[in-house]
Design brief:
Blueprint lengths: L7 E2 L7 E4 L3 E4 L11 E4 L5 E3 L6 E4 L8 E2 L7 H4 L1
Parallel strand pairs: 1-3, 2-6
Antiparallel strand pairs: 2-7, 3-4, 5-6
């Protein structure tokens, strides 16, 4: 199986801010069946971006690995997308 290149994140816990280790990623809102359309977001040179669907604020943290998040449960595991 090919490794997923674009990190995927969700906000099922309903937190206001998710810190992530990537500037380009996919937000799916909550886990299925309560997810919103999966949207690919690109921060560019900024350190924050708000998802236009769920209004979650994503903040870039260079100390995190690209597929990591804080809170950790907001990072979608590879097995969930297989």
């Amino acid at each position: 199986m090919a490794e997923r290149i674009v990190p995927h994140f969700h906000n099922t816990p309903g937190v206001g801010v998710i810190e992530i280790g990537a500037r380009e990623f996919m937000c799916e809102g909550e886990l299925a069946p309560f997810d919103h359309p999966h949207v690919f977001l690109d921060m560019g040179d900024a350190n924050e971006i708000i998802c236009p669907y769920c209004s979650t604020l994503f903040r870039y943290d260079p100390t995190l690995a690209p597929h990591a998040a804080r809170p950790a449960e907001c990072a979608l595991p590879d097995s969930a997308t297989a």
